[in-house]
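Lay summary. Proteins are chains of building blocks that fold into shapes, and those shapes determine what they do. In this project we predict the shape from the chain. Here is one chain we studied, written as its sequence of building blocks.
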Amino acid sequence: MKNFHVPLPEQTYTQLRAASKSTEIPATTIAREAIDAWLKARARDERRAAMARYADAVAGTIEDFDPDVEAAGLESLARMDPWRK
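And here is the predicted shape, written in a compact code that computers can read:
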């Protein structure tokens, strides 16, 4: 575990302390979990962006079309109940 000093605006600090008191969760735990959640969301967004860049780059090429995958998808759609949600 490493320590990291994070200066906070007064309002953020006050809200964090209030949340800590009302939930009986240490402020450091709340901050750590919030940072972890943000980092995970950022990594997810970066993966999605990379996938979108790849899809744009290969659109219309042989890498964009896999006849076996398309056939399996069409077969699966044909078996679906049109009234099922």
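What the prediction tells us: The radius of gyration is 23 Å.
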